């Protein structure tokens, strides 16, 4: 047998083999890890990084406003910075090229001659075709000969009216990977404690510039300003400036600014889609999106107006369901609990374990266990036993009370306001469970609309954020495309027929008609597949069947009922949102309903009409409540009610809350 020694194989080199280096144990900081694997967090390339930066900042801004029940106002600006400006920002002298051949985009004289000849030939052909009356394609723009050196830089600024941040916490919130305030079990948009830091890491990698944060909390007479960077190796913030400034205007919120490399040209449409979809699922927010560049014809300003004051309640933190915990988590809960004994621990640290059930479980665990035993004294085997029992025993499903779906009202309103469809139907399911985590699926179908492409348009949302990438593999897209295409067509056809439009004979054509399919899933744990948090696998049967079922449930009758039902629903939603803002009212929805409806009525002298059509509210009562509640502010826009008059085709209640078309 021939020797496989590396010495022999190296073309007869007979040097002594290099001694392999002693392996040195190294440790990577989380910041280093994410800097090296930035695609995991959606920073795959400059274009996607620009998109993800916008997304992370917008989502943080919404979270922040919602936590204080403030209707979000979010302004996002992307300012293009040409290289010379960027260089002057960083104090680098802009140099002319001297040695052209050194550059990636260098074109030899021969190559240039060839290219020009080809372009001339193409022009000739075009001219000939034009003279023969043939269709002429737009002359292809000469390929930009752009070298790698021509990076584009952008200053991304996001301003919100949220809760702001405590002065001393700012450096760690932005300069320490995997630190955040959104840990814990609840439905949240963010959860890794990564987004804003990744934007900073990317800025550090691409421009070397720090992040700037201004923030002020409600009632604070100062605002905080912080300019910081991240020490990648140690995963700690590197602070350049951290100071308190005057806050005469008493503003509250945050303004985050970061300068990164990006690519607006290739990600323009994705970013605008994202903003639009966010406006669909968040119709209670006001967004101002701006792209600003030196070339003014590239500038973009899009305003997404708020169309409702109804905000889904802030999702509360909840406890774990016994089927949702693993060994590690049980150990952590034991370490963190303030409860003394096992009985109290089981009863208070989990949902759906009442005292009698906890006692039965402890009895079942075996003779080593007793209700009074100190929970911190449990040894590893005992913890495994608890875990095994959690796996095998029956528990009631967790309730969906801790979830805050967009709500049918918001989903429908969002679809109407952004897409202007001819028809829309929505459905909201009840909570279901996947591995001990509750989830709710809401769905909508629309037909027609403005700026909607022909065929199927799928809008996916998870915990009220739009998912734009990896659609092909997603449970929603797959269900819509494969399994219920037919169903969908029949739903939309029914929709049309049910409204006895003059276009009764209209045939749905799935390639020509503009069909919108909207599916929103909220949960305490979204089972994302893949690393990018962009799609939910269709192998999770609970979710797949819920999506399927809910789409079939988007039925004609449900939200195209008579006017009474629709107005009633609006008032109820208003009452609920009111209740969520003022907690003490939570159990008095019925009363609130009356009050809120009264407000609607007195402000608009529509009491009589509404009282006729809204169950439970008569005019007298409405007036009385209105007087008592002493609501002062005027609605922003007038309210129009047309459909209540016989023969009118739709209700268009603008402010304070409502835009909705009813087809009767
Ligand atoms: N605009 C903001 N207003 C108030 N607090 C903010 C704002 N932006 C970020 N924060 C705070 O900084 C923390 C870290 O934000 P970061 O985006 O890094 O992580 P995250 O939002 O918690 O999770 P994810 O990785 O999913 O984005 C947040 O948890 C939040 O407390």
From TrEMBL:
Q: Name one Pfam family in it.
A: HATPase_c_3
Q: Where is the DNA topoisomerase VI subunit B transducer domain?
A: 398-554
- Gene3D superfamilies in the cross-refs: 1.10.8.50, 3.30.230.10, Histidine kinase-like ATPase, C-terminal domain
Q: Where in the cell is it found?
A: Nucleus
Q: Where is this region: Disordered?
A: 1-29
Source organism superkingdom = Eukaryota
- Give the record's keywords alphabetically: ATP-binding, DNA-binding, Isomerase, Nucleotide-binding, Nucleus, Topoisomerase
What residue range is the signal peptide? none
- E.C. numbers: 5.6.2.2
Subunit architecture: Homodimer. Heterotetramer of two TOP6A and two TOP6B subunits.
Q: Please explain the role this protein plays, according to its UniProt record.
A: Component of the DNA topoisomerase VI involved in chromatin organization and progression of endoreduplication cycles. Relaxes both positive and negative superturns and exhibits a strong decatenase activity. The B subunit binds ATP.
Say which family it is in: Belongs to the TOP6B family.
Which PANTHER family does this entry report, sorted A to Z?
Answer: DNA TOPOISOMERASE 6 SUBUNIT B
Q: What is this protein called?
A: DNA topoisomerase 6 subunit B
The organism named in the record is Camellia sinensis var. sinensis
């Amino acid at each position: 047998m021939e020797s496989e020694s590396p010495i022999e194989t190296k073309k007869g080199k007979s040097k002594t083999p290099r001694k392999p280096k002693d392996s040195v144990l190294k440790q990577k900081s989380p910041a280093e890890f994410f800097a090296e694997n930035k695609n995991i967090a959606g920073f795959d390339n400059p274009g996607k990084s620009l998109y993800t930066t916008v997304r992370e900042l917008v989502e943080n801004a919404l979270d922040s406003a919602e936590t204080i029940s403030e209707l979000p106002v979010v302004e996002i600006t992307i300012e293009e910075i040409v290289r010379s400006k960027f260089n002057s920002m960083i104090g680098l002298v802009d140099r002319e090229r001297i040695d052209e051949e050194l550059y990636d985009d260098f074109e030899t004289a021969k190559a240039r001659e060839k290219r020009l000849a080809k372009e001339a030939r193409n022009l000739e052909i075009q001219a000939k075709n034009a003279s023969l009356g043939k269709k002429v394609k737009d002359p292809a723009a000469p390929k930009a000969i752009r070298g790698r050196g021509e990076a584009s830089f952008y200053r991304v600024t996001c301003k919100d009216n949220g809760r702001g941040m405590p002065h001393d916490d700012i450096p760690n919130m932005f300069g320490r990977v995997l630190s955040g305030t959104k840990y814990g079990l609840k439905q949240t948009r963010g959860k890794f404690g990564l987004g804003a830091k990744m934007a900073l890491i990317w800025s550090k990698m691409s421009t070397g510039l720090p992040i700037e944060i201004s923030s002020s909390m409600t009632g604070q007479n100062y605002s905080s300003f912080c300019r910081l960077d991240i020490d990648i190796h140690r995963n700690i913030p590197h602070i350049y400036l951290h100071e308190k400034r005057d806050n005469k205007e008493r503003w509250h919120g945050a303004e985050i600014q970061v300068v990164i490399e990006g690519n607006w040209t290739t990600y323009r449409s994705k970013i605008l889609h994202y903003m639009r979809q966010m406006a669909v699922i968040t119709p209670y927010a006001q967004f101002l999106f701006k792209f600003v560049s030196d070339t003014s014809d590239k500038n973009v300003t899009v305003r997404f107006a708020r169309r409702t004051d109804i905000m889904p309640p802030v999702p509360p933190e909840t406890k774990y369901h016994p089927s949702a915990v693993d060994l590690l988590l049980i150990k952590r809960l034991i370490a963190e609990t303030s409860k003394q004994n096992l009985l109290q621990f089981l009863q208070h640290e989990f949902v759906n374990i009442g005292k009698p059930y906890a006692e039965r479980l402890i009895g079942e665990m075996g003779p080593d266990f007793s209700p009074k035993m100190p929970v911190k004294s449990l040894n590893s085997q005992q913890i495994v036993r608890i875990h095994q029992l959690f796996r095998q025993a029956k528990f009631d499903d967790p309730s969906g009370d801790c979830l805050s779906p967009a709500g049918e009202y918001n989903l429908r309103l969002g679809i109407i306001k952004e897409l202007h469809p001819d028809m829309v139907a929505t459905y909201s399911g009840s909570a279901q469970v996947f591995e001990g985590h509750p989830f709710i699926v809401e769905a909508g179908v629309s037909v027609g609309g403005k700026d909607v492409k022909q065929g199927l348009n799928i809008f996916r949302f998870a915990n009220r954020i739009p998912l734009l990438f990896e659609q092909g593999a997603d449970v929603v897209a797959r269900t819509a495309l494969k399994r219920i295409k037919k169903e969908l067509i029949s739903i939309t056809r029914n929709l049309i027929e049910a409204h006895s439009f003059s276009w009764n004979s209209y045939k749905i054509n799935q390639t020509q008609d503009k069909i919108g399919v909207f599916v929103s899933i909220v949960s305490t744990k979204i089972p994302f597949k893949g690393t990018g948090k962009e799609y939910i696998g269709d192998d999770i049967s609970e979710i797949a069947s819920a999506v399927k079922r809910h789409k079939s449930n988007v039925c004609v009758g449900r939200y195209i009922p008579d006017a009474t039902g629709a107005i009633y629903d609006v008032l109820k939603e208003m009452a609920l949102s009111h209740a969520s803002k003022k907690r003490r009212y939570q159990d008095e929805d019925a009363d609130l309903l009356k009050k809120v409806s009264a407000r609607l009525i007195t402000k608009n002298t529509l009491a009589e009409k509404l009282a006729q059509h809204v169950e439970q509210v008569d005019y007298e009562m409405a007036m009385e409540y209105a007087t008592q509640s002493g609501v002062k502010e005027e609605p922003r826009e007038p309210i129009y009610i047309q459909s209540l008059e016989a023969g009118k085709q739709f209700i268009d209640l603008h402010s304070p809350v409502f835009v909705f078309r009813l087809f009767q």
